[in-house]
Amino acid sequence: MTELFDAAMNSKAWPFQEAMKLVKKYEKKDPEKGYVLFETGYGPSGLPHIGTFGEVARTTMVRRAFEAISDIPTKLISFSDDMDGLRKVPDNVPNREEMGAHLQKPLTSVPDPFGTDPSFGAHNNRMLCEFLDGFGFEYEFASATEYYTSGKFDGILLRACERYDDIMKVMLASLREERQQTYSCFLPISPETGRVLYVPMKEVNAKDGTITFEEDGQDITMPVTGGNVKLQWKPDFGMRWAALDVDFEMYGKEHATNTAIYQKICRILGGTGPEIFTYELFLDEKGQKISKSQGNGISMDEWLAYAPPESLSYYMYQKPKTAKRLFFDVIPKAVDEYNQQLNAFPSQDLATQLNNPVYHIHRGQAPASDMAISFSMLLNLASAASAEDKDVLWGFIRKYAPDATPASHPGLDAAAGYAVRYFNERVKATKTYRAPSDVERAALEDLRDRLVAWDGETDADTLQSLVFAVGKEHEFDPLRAWFSAIYEVLLGASQGPRFGGFIAIFGITETAKLIDDALSGAFLAG
Length: 526
What we know:
single chain, five-stranded parallel beta sheet, three-stranded antiparallel beta sheet, 12 strands
């Protein structure tokens, strides 16, 4: 533990840097609740998505880093804000017209349009749990509705009554004048309609623990306990931190401007507030912020159609405080880099391993990679062979790695399937071949002739030297123009693999035929 602790203390890996903050927080005294609490939030107005995965995966990485260097027990709560009112009917649900009659009701009071669960909130909560369970996350699910209605929040709500003026002072300072006139941190649930009401308070009685407000011209007084009210979302954030004694929470930068408000309200209610980690948002292929309503990003199902979940965890680990493009073209790079890190892990010393993403993805027990061929190379093989099933790729794989089989190399077998699907669904329609220039044609014919006559070694380095020699002899300047010609004429792409490695796997005879087909114009449209 001492060696690990010392290495972690000096580690540049962000999960350890965050974990060390919690170690320092409790270096003199363990938490009174008996554990360190990590929290993630979920708004169940929609299904869990790639951002949900990222938040839980990253929080888990910090949790595991803390567990590696501390003996204090931990918990991760995934808290669902399912008492929020339904603001609009989602576009992707059945029975939308019927659902529209329940606007502004708590999500757990809105009938489930799918007909499978007691409410819309319950449906999405179940989907969240199935989603998290499917990735093997360890967590405890918590429902706002259950916490409010069961009395778990009663004590903190009565304290909010006592300190109502202090809470309002914080909130009013953050609001426009017009909004200040009608704002209250308490949102009563209408006893008549069951809707969440956004109304000003006529009275907040700390002694009785009640609020008085007007609805339809009548004054209504009700207790703040027992699920009769909920808090506005900003006070709710701070209240939850205080009530649960949350130690760590991360969220997107859209919350960053509200962090001070959350913290102030937490302290007003007697809490200390958690360590906060703010991550950057994802961007689409054009560099624009991803929006669930616009659908301009990539979904969980889409990523997992083309790559294993570990590659997504790797992508989430990388530079969480930097805005990153989240589109289909990042998948092959993520897969290959993940496997490169797996291959490097066994030979690294402890300090280097702690900085390796796979340590945090696999709790320090990184498995061996069986990727004898990179994912990018599999994609290029699929492209060159116009493969429609992974058996075609295995024909090439066996020539390059004779001992490999789908049974002995399940990761490689899965990757071959992913590569074929990715090529056919994401690459095939975008391939653009061009005719070679006279200089390029002469060089390609020379390369073909040398391959046909080749009787030397067939390893990737030797064949790469051959390709280099052809480019130099035909005076390509810069030499990368030669490789660009190879990719654009033979593969219909602007960039491609190390071509000697491609020949070694695809085959010398097959590559010679590929050149012949390209020079004959077989790949050109029209």
